[in-house]
Design a protein that fits this description.
The complex is a heterodimer of chains A (623) and B (573). With 623 residues, chain A is an alpha/beta fold. Chain A is built from 16 helices and 29 strands. Chain B is mainly β. Chain B has an 18-stranded antiparallel barrel. A two-stranded antiparallel ribbon of chain B has the order 8-9. A two-stranded antiparallel ribbon of chain B has the order 12-13. Classes of the chains: A alpha/beta (623), B mainly beta (573).
């Protein structure tokens, strides 16, 4: 039978309808979900930023689809937060005055281990894949893009020191992980031997049997896909040599253990002196920036990694991003330590001996030799201990703050890193009251006035303020994991006094450039912490530097019991403002103070309070 | 050190085999040269074994069918080689040929079954005490098949079809253990077409037991017994076509089968079958866990090894009539087994290659029948090698150095028959079997064994009778027992010995037979009292603390029933 013209038309029409139906059935991803993206510099001066640190798993849960293995009844389990949740709460954060998000690690982790989950992100297994608990790459991209659309920035938490518990030491060479006890306790001590987490041995963990030692213990990677105990990625991390294999650190004061020991909990220490490992770390983590246009790295456990690694890593990341149009990428490290010299060394621009530098340069494959540049800043742990804990929580003498700050130019780098933030590290330390590794500020028993006073200090001190999520909701959890509460349990209440206070002081910081960019000069610090009239008094000026003629005088009374004044024996503090200058409290415009003819300023503050005084000519109302 | 002349090389067989097997089957008392040294010492039946018992290996020989579970007693240790198929009631009679008339249209139900309540006389349950792969069936456990069948005759094509579904239930049953559960298998589920396009041509597809003649007393199909999912074709021809019309008679109504013609004469058939089987073991498939693809949560199962046996068989059969009712039956048989290569994960990310392998079977059967009262005799000879030596549903063990079953072999010679005259009938069964696994050295899995069993029946009119069964079975495995610590009978310390395990049995089976007399007449209501005596070597086959390893005599006392009717698997329907 011949096909007529009419029937052909019917067939063509039917085909068109079918194709149309097929086309409308195609899945369309959101714009920007796939393909490369163009990198850009989103930051002018990092001191203008207010960072908000959040644990993605605990901040907001907006996608039920990724709630795998969720158990919100246990603090050590997955709770369901995700990147979509963060994106949907940007209004809440922006309203608080936050300008930069520091999000917990995004890479795929060991899912669960010994009854605890990898919800925090520090048990990384695959540096090339996103953690599906938090969403997928489009979700991460979308969150970063949404932040940028609001002028907000995003800092990513990364770990280069260790991987998750991905292998065990086969100490008894039986090819399976053991947890056993050796010794009878009478003629020999009882030793608990755990092949996942054996004690540090400077020779490397040794294998042994009842007949004695038998050489370095081989490591065996676990394979349990259900808990994501599978060999790591990138591929280089599957080499035994990529790890130091010396066992768990038990003495952090031993430099060998500090640098080469596994992190407690069986987190396997990576051999960060190897060229292939250095390159892999740069490639892996820079790739996340290239995929999402992130603005910075917060780097975990920097004191457990050799400084030669930081030179390589920081410089190569900057160079690679600069080549793609991203500058002022901020990298600050976490050295959980109160020793200022130790913490500051990761920001110093000091070259190693010539021979050492030549060895380090053997890892350089792009022809651009290494300099002394390291990180742009650090998490200011010494200040946490000596100012936040000792002074604001425990009401000890304020002179320890002055002593600490006086060492800043000595202990920290004072020259900007090439292709870095343009700021010297000593001016871009990240100030914080608490974080996910220490108890929340309120856990100590300090009340809300003390918290508000410390927050005021945070937002006026030199550096970049960082607020731990939930502070605005006055959460008071203790040590990990109690300090990692679900923020959604608060209802994201914007009516709390602390939410309002942070909102105000962040506005104030934004309004007064002196608070962001001015140099610091301590005008009053007291060694007294008792009933003396200046016990608890502390004052400093923010002026000069990059602040032009802007000026601010910040005064605190950290004493919990009585009013205090920065004065002693009837002599008020000397200030650098010109005599006759009228200073106005930026947070209470009706309070005005005049600098005396001899350059002194008299002010008395109630317990646990502060004041930010600015010249009347610079005063901005409405905050 | 092993006794000279007792153990031969795993590869050396041939002429020595027949004489060795004959010696094996001979009662110990009449063996001129002892097959094994005399026992080192009298064994106290209650004393523990002098040495650790041998481990129980996986099945060694053709495991054609799932073995009906035994009563809840300790497991039978030694042979475990061949899951016992259910009874095959009709043996030696000419097969129902395709050239016969179409089957009546409609549904039909058939069944084979045996149920028994038994004790060991000591308060425990009755227990199968055979040591050979195919032992006496007196002490078998419960097993039932229920067959539902649909036959259709299609007038337009003059073809007929048959759909067969057979459910098999194995011990235990709910009223015994109280578990509201069942051990169930689908043994047949296939569709067969007959006379489609050519008279005598049939084809089938599905899951099917493909088997020929059995030895009833041993519950065994010595020549062919395949269980696969596959398909087959068969062509039957009746050379003489005595009195058989080519088509249904005129006037046959649609859907109604024509009358059954008499089919007597030279008849031949050829049957081909190809099927697949994948025994549930790591030799055939391996599932491992892998992270979910595309970075999804959790783990997914991945089949890194998934290979199945291809089994083909060909059978040619000819029946030569002798007189009006008797005849001679000749069967030639072949099987080919093929297993493709694969890989298995030994450790994470470490794969072991599993090479392809194959095997074949050749066999023959010569039978004769009188056509009167099921009197017949069948002799079988069968040789299998390589993969085929292990059978269709058995996983090869003790592999050769190339990790295949190459070199494994099984040689079987078997006889079965039945003779009835007046109020007397005698059933007979015997076989010799030599199995060598693929491993080069002799080991526990290498077996020479045999049995001879006879069951005379004495019928009391048409209502019942009594059967008395006597059997002797023996087995020799490729292991040497180390000497007991005490001295032997001659006062000298006894060296390591290769041993032959022997077992004698006599059974008394009074029965009621409502269908009339006949060795194959069923149903039966019956009592069974079987007395089994095993020697020390037979006891040594059982593990420590197994009462079968301690006791020399077993009783099996039971009351039960056996039936078969209208089952296509056993020549009915």
């Amino acid at each position: 039978m011949r096909t007529t013209y009419a029937s052909k038309k019917v067939w063509v029409a039917a085909l068109a309808v079918a194709l149309g139906a097929a086309n409308t059935g195609c899945m369309e991803l959101d714009e920007g979900a796939e393909g490369e993206i163009e990198l850009a510099t989103h930051v002018g001066d990092w001191r203008d930023e207010v960072i908000y640190q959040l644990l993605v798993d605990r901040f907001a849960d907006a996608d039920e689809g990724n709630n795998f293995r969720v158990d919100t009844s246990a603090p050590g389990k997955w709770h369901g937060g995700d990147w979509l949740g963060v994106e949907q709460k940007l209004d809440y954060l922006q309203g608080l005055g936050v300008t930069t998000l520091w999000i917990s690690p995004v890479v795929k982790n060991v899912d669960t281990d010994a009854g605890y989950d990898g919800y925090h992100g520090y048990w990384q297994q695959d540096l090339t894949a996103v953690n599906p608990h938090f969403g997928d790459l489009p979700a991460l991209r979308s969150m970063v893009r949404a932040a940028h659309d609001r002028g907000m920035k995003v800092i990513l938490d990364i770990v280069t020191n260790h991987m998750g518990q991905l292998f065990y030491y086969d100490i008894n060479l039986n090819g399976e992980p053991d947890d056993r006890v050796a010794g009878n306790g009478i003629t020999s001590g009882v030793t608990h031997l755990n092949e996942y987490d054996p004690d540090f041995d400077p020779r490397g963990v040794q294998s042994f049997t009842s007949l004695g030692e038998s050489g370095p213990a081989p490591i065996i990677f676990n394979y349990d896909p259900a808990s994501n105990h599978v060999p790591p990625l990138p591929e280089v991390l599957r080499k035994p040599e990529a790890y130091n294999r010396k066992g768990r650190t038990y003495n952090f004061d031993d430099p060998d253990q500090l640098l080469h020991g596994d992190f407690p909990g069986g987190l396997k220490d990576v051999n960060t002196t190897r060229c292939d490992v250095k390159q892999a770390m740069v490639d892996s983590f820079t790739r996340w920036v290239e995929l999402t246009d992130l603005d910075g790295f917060r780097i975990d456990t920097v004191k457990h990694v050799e400084r030669e690694f930081w030179r390589y890593f920081a410089q190569k990341v900057r160079q690679r991003l600069h080549a793609q149009g991203k500058d002022r990428f901020f990298m600050f490290g976490e050295a959980f330590d109160g020793r200022d010299i130790l913490v500051g060394q990761y920001t110093k621009n000091d070259l190693p001996p010539e021979g050492e530098l030549a060895r380090e340069n053997e890892c350089v494959s792009d022809g651009v030799g290494l300099t002394g540049d390291q990180l742009d800043g650090v998490f200011y742990f010494p200040q946490y201990f000596q100012a936040i804990r000792d002074v604001f929580q425990l009401a000890q003498s304020t002179d320890r703050i002055e002593q600490l700050w006086s060492q800043r130019a000595t202990n920290y780098g004072t020259t900007p890193n090439e292709l870095g933030t343009t700021l010297p590290p000593n001016k871009s330390l990240v100030n914080f009251l608490d974080n996910h590794d220490v108890p929340r500020f309120l856990f100590s028993g300090a009340g809300t006035p003390s918290l508000h006073n410390a927050l005021l200090f945070l937002c006026t001190a030199e550096g970049i303020p960082c607020i731990y999520y939930g502070t605005e909701q006055e959460l008071a959890g203790g040590n990990d994991p109690a300090n990692r509460e679900d923020l959604w349990g608060t209802g994201f209440d914007t009516g709390t006094s602390t939410y309002g206070w942070i909102q105000r002081i962040s506005r104030m910081r934004k309004a007064y450039k002196a608070l962001r960019a001015g140099d610091v000069a301590v005008t009053w610090a007291s060694a007294r912490a008792g009933d003396e009239p200046d016990a608890g008094a502390f004052a400093f000026e923010r002026a000069g530097g990059d602040a032009g003629d802007a000026y601010a005088l910040v005064v605190f009374n950290t004493n919990k019991n009585h009013d205090s004044s920065p004065a002693f024996d009837g002599a008020p503090m000397l200030v650098n403002a010109a005599p006759g200058t009228v200073l106005v409290n930026a947070l209470a415009g009706e309070q005005k103070f005049t600098v005396s003819a001899d350059g002194r300023l008299s002010i008395t503050l109630p317990p646990e309070s502060g004041a930010v005084l600015v010249p009347e000519s610079q005063f901005e109302g409405g905050i | 050190m092993r006794p000279a002349g007792i153990l031969v090389s795993g590869r050396a067989r041939g002429a020595a085999l027949a004489s060795r097997l004959a010696a094996l089957l001979a009662p110990a008392a009449v063996v001129a040269q002892p097959v094994e040294p005399p026992p080192a010492q009298p064994t106290d039946p209650l004393a523990p074994p002098a040495e650790p018992p041998p481990p129980v290996d996986p099945p060694l020989a053709p495991a054609a069918e799932p073995r009906p579970a035994e009563p809840p007693a300790a497991p039978k240790p030694p042979p475990a080689e061949s899951p016992k198929p259910p009874a095959a009631p009709v043996t030696g009679a000419p097969p129902v040929a395709s050239v016969a008339a179409p089957r009546p249209t409609g549904f039909a139900f058939g069944s084979y079954g045996r149920m028994i309540a038994a004790t060991d006389g000591r308060g425990g349950p009755g227990r199968d005490s055979d040591i050979v792969a195919h032992g006496s069936r007196l002490d078998e456990a419960n097993y039932v098949e229920l067959e539902l069948r649909r036959d259709d005759y299609w007038e337009k094509t003059r073809a007929s079809t048959r759909l067969v579904a057979t459910l098999a239930f194995a011990n235990p049953v709910f009223h015994y253990d109280g578990d509201f559960d069942v051990s169930l298998a689908v043994r047949n589920l296939y569709l067969e077409e007959r006379d489609l396009g050519a008279k005598g041509l049939s084809a089938w597809a599905g899951s099917r037991m493909v088997r020929g003649d059995d030895i009833y007393l041993l519950d065994w199909w010595p020549l062919d017994n395949l269980n696969t999912v596959g398909a087959g074709v068969r062509y039957d021809t009746d050379w003489a076509r005595w009195g058989r019309p080519e088509a249904p008679p005129a006037g046959a109504t649609p859907g109604q089968a024509p009358p059954q013609p008499e089919a007597r004469g030279n008849r031949s058939s050829i049957a081909l079958h190809m099927g697949l089987a994948q025994p549930d073991s790591a030799y055939f498939h391996q599932t491992v866990q892998r992270p979910a693809p595309l970075n999804q949560f959790g783990a997914v199962d991945v089949e890194v090894l998934d290979r199945q046996k291809w089994i083909g068989s060909a059978k040619i059969e000819h029946i030569l009539p002798v007189g009006r009712e008797a005849g001679v039956k000749v069967v030639g048989y072949m099987e080919a087994h093929r297993l493709p290569a694969g890989q298995r994960e030994e450790d994470t990310g470490v794969f072991e290659s599993l090479p392809a392998e194959s095997g074949y079977v050749i066999g023959a059967q010569l039978g004769a029948f009188t056509g009167q009262r099921d009197t017949h005799v069948n002799a079988f000879v069968r040789y299998a090698t390589g993969l085929a030596a292990y059978g269709d549903l058995v996983t090869p063990t003790q592999l050769s150095i190339d990790a295949t079953s190459s070199g494994a072999s099984e040689m079987v010679v078997a006889v079965g028959g039945n003779w009835e005259f007046g109020p007397v009938g005698v059933m007979l069964g015997a076989y010799l079997r030599s199995f060598r696994n693929a491993g080069e050295a002799l080991d526990y899995g290498d077996v020479d064994e045999g049995i001879i069993v006879a069951r005379p029946h004495l019928f009391f009119g048409e209502y019942g009778g009594i059967a008395i069964e006597g059997s002797y079975q023996a087995q020799q495995r490729g292991v040497v027992r180390t000497a007991p610590e005490s001295e032997g009978e001659d006062g000298a310390g006894e060296g390591p010995s290769h041993f032959t395990a022997r077992l004698y049995r006599v059974g008394f089976v009074p029965f009621l037979s409502p269908a009339g007399r006949g060795d194959y007449s069923r149903p039966h209501l019956r009592l069974i009292w079987a007395i089994t005596a095993r020697d020390d070597a037979a006891k040594a086959l059982y593990p420590e603390d197994d009462v079968f390893g301690l006791r020399g005599v077993e009783h099996f006392l039971g009351v039960g029933a056996e039936w078969w009717f209208n089952s296509s698997s056993y020549g009915g329907g």
